[in-house]
Automatic annotation (TrEMBL):
Name of this protein: Ferritin-like domain-containing protein
InterPro entries attached to this UniProt entry: Ferritin-like_SF
The organism's place on the tree of life at top rank: Bacteria
Biological source species: Candidatus Fimimonas gallinarum
Length: 411
């Protein structure tokens, strides 16, 4: 599939009416977990499209181009509202959060396994273990506060057990700034992976920024705040991998190509017939957007799309699947890694004067000040051991104990 040679069936003036923006929500009791994560992922992609378009609009002097952007952006906003309406009213903040973290875990694991750029793969493996730990912390809070077993929400596709402990993830800001990727040399798959992960992590960051104050108790509010700070680090990490030399119009083309690829993948992967139809409709929307972006690039910069995306054919499509074995391997091999400037190393190899240690002391203070630790500590105090779903013994010996939360791994 090469979207550049496909003929769009819609025009920029084709908008949705109100009746087509309020879609039928999924049933939270019988939805496939990967349908839920596909919806969350598509919502994040649309948020990124809107956010990028507004930034472009604010940096552009040509009002004709700004009007073209406004027309594209209005449709992106409509698409986002349609996707958001698929979430049922009765699904709570914390239940939805499990979907966010399952998405982060499995999406990152899938991309890491297919990534050919070793530096980009290293970033994915690194952040993977942190989102994996977030999923575990939220799962314990969900059972503790709501009596809901997260294993049912993740469908057994994703394990629920400690990753790199969240208390260990807090790093000095400069350690999350990485080397950018040259898109002129990178494969289409690498560019797509970076764009999609940036959008997904950005959405999670914003969700936690907004939801922290709405949680029902102090400990839950503190957990959302703490993990929200890690999501800020992840957005810096992934966003920093994007090519900083691209022009705004080149970046617009890449955004639209990414959305075409994503919706086409979701359309092919979806098991819910109703939601599958939504992905098909949105792919056709994005096909038109992509062609407009190519025309704008030609008009304003005298460039053809092949100068940005040499091979327009979609690479391997995104298909959600369980990644238990791969995550266990990464855990066993890299759980004690931390960021070290633009690279990574075992925390034990850091010099004593590394800013990581100063930041840990300043932000974390005592372990008893840290919400991600206190969630597990309270759950153990109430139940004798933590809540987990694992298919075998934990691959990291220090994280096998279930009646004490480990706060030293990775620190």
């Amino acid at each position: 599939m090469n979207p550049f040679v496909e003929k769009p069936i819609k025009t920029a003036e084709d908008f949705y009416g109100w009746n087509n923006m309020a879609l039928k929500p999924y049933n939270k009791f019988d939805v496939d977990p990967y349908t839920r994560v596909r919806i969350i992922l598509a919502n994040g992609a649309e948020y990124e499209a809107v956010w990028f378009s507004h930034q472009f609009h604010r940096h552009e002097r040509d009002n004709d181009l700004r009007r073209d952007l406004a027309t594209l952006r209005r449709k992106e906003q409509q698409q986002q509202k349609r996707i958001a309406s698929l979430k049922p009213i009765g699904e709570g903040i914390l239940e939805h959060t499990i979907g966010y973290e399952q998405l982060a875990v499995d999406l990152t694991a899938i991309f890491a396994q297919r990534e050919s750029d070793r530096y980009v793969k290293q970033a994915m493996d690194f952040a993977l273990l942190e989102d994996f730990d977030h999923l575990y912390r939220y799962a314990d809070l969900l059972e503790m506060d709501k009596g809901i077993i997260a294993e049912k929400l993740v469908g057994g596709y994703t394990e629920l057990m400690p990753g790199r402990p969240t208390i260990s993830e807090h790093r000095f800001p400069t350690d999350d700034v990485k080397r950018f990727t040259n898109y002129k040399k990178a494969s289409s798959l690498t560019k797509l992976d970076i764009n999609i992960l940036t959008a997904a992590e950005q959405q999670t960051m914003n969700y936690y920024m907004n939801q922290a104050a709405f949680y029902q108790n102090k400990l839950g509010r503190q957990l959302y705040t703490e993990i929200g700070m890690i999501e800020e680090q992840h957005v810096t990490l992934y966003g920093g991998l994007k090519d900083t030399t691209s022009t705004w119009l080149e970046d617009l083309l890449m955004h639209e190509y990414t959305e075409c690829y994503l919706y086409y993948s979701l359309w092919q992967d979806e098991t819910d017939r109703y939601v599958k139809k939504v992905w098909e409709e949105h792919f056709n929307d994005e096909l038109q957007h992509l062609h407009v972006a190519a025309e704008l690039l030609q008009k304003h910069e005298n460039k053809v799309w092949q100068q940005v995306i040499p091979n327009g054919d979609f690479p391997e499509l995104l298909a959600f699947r369980s990644n238990i074995d791969y995550i266990r391997k990464v855990l066993k091999e890299t759980v004690n890694y931390t960021a070290r400037g633009e690279d990574y190393s075992e925390v034990g190899d850091l010099p004593a004067e590394a800013k990581f240690f100063d930041y840990q002391r300043e932000v974390n203070g005592k372990d008893s000040d840290v919400a991600s630790h206190n969630i597990i500590r309270k759950y153990i105090a109430d139940n004798g051991k933590d809540y987990r779903f694992q298919t075998a013994e934990h691959p990291v010996e220090e994280l096998r104990e279930r009646n004490r939360d480990n706060t030293t791994v990775g620190r």
